């Protein structure tokens, strides 16, 4: 019987940049994660569609990972990205 605590679950879905940021925050908290995405192509290497990148974790890390992501989202609302005007 497989324990529910060992299942792999999706904790976040977003752009490649956002997923990398989330993975970095999780890594700093000693939470292992990996990304998963699917990209479709019609001609050569030019993507015709792309799904969001998904960050996957062990279900046993769900509570801690959720707190980290909620804090990240809260900080994003408090400090929105610069538009380039002051760069």
Describe this structure in words.
It is a single chain. The chain is 34% helix and 31% strand. The protein is α+β, with helices and mostly antiparallel strands and 87 residues long. The chain has one domain: Alpha-Beta Plaits (2-Layer Sandwich), CATH 3.30.70. The strands form two sheets. A three-stranded antiparallel β-sheet has the order 1-5-2, covered by helices on one side. A hairpin with a 2-residue loop joins strand 3 (39-43) and strand 4. The chain starts with 7 loop residues before the first strand and ends in a 9-residue tail after the last helix. The model is unreliable at 82-87 (pLDDT under 50).
The CATH architecture: 2-Layer Sandwich
- Per the CATH scheme, the topology name is Alpha-Beta Plaits
Structural class: alpha+beta
Low-confidence stretches: 82-87
Helices, by number, come to 2
Please summarize the sheet with the most strands.
Answer: 3 strands, antiparallel
In sequence order, what are the helices and strands, one letter per element? Answer: EHEEEEH
Counting DSSP E segments of at least 2 residues, the number of strands comes to 5
Assembly of the depicted chains: single chain
Q: What topology, given as strand order, has the largest sheet?
A: 1-5-2
Structural domain count? 1
Bin the helical content: 25-40%
CATH classification class: Alpha Beta
CATH superfamily: Hypothetical protein rpa1041
Strand content: 25-35%
């Amino acid at each position: 019987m497989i324990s529910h605590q060992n299942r792999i679950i999706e904790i976040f879905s977003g752009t490649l940049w956002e997923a990398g940021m989330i993975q970095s925050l999780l890594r700093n908290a000693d939470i292992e994660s990996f990304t998963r995405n699917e990209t479709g192509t019609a001609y050569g290497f030019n993507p015709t569609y792309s799904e969001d990148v998904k960050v996957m974790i062990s279900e046993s890390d769900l509570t801690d990972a959720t707190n980290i992501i909620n804090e990240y989202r809260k900080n994003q609302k408090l400090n929105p990205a610069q538009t380039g005007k002051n760069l």
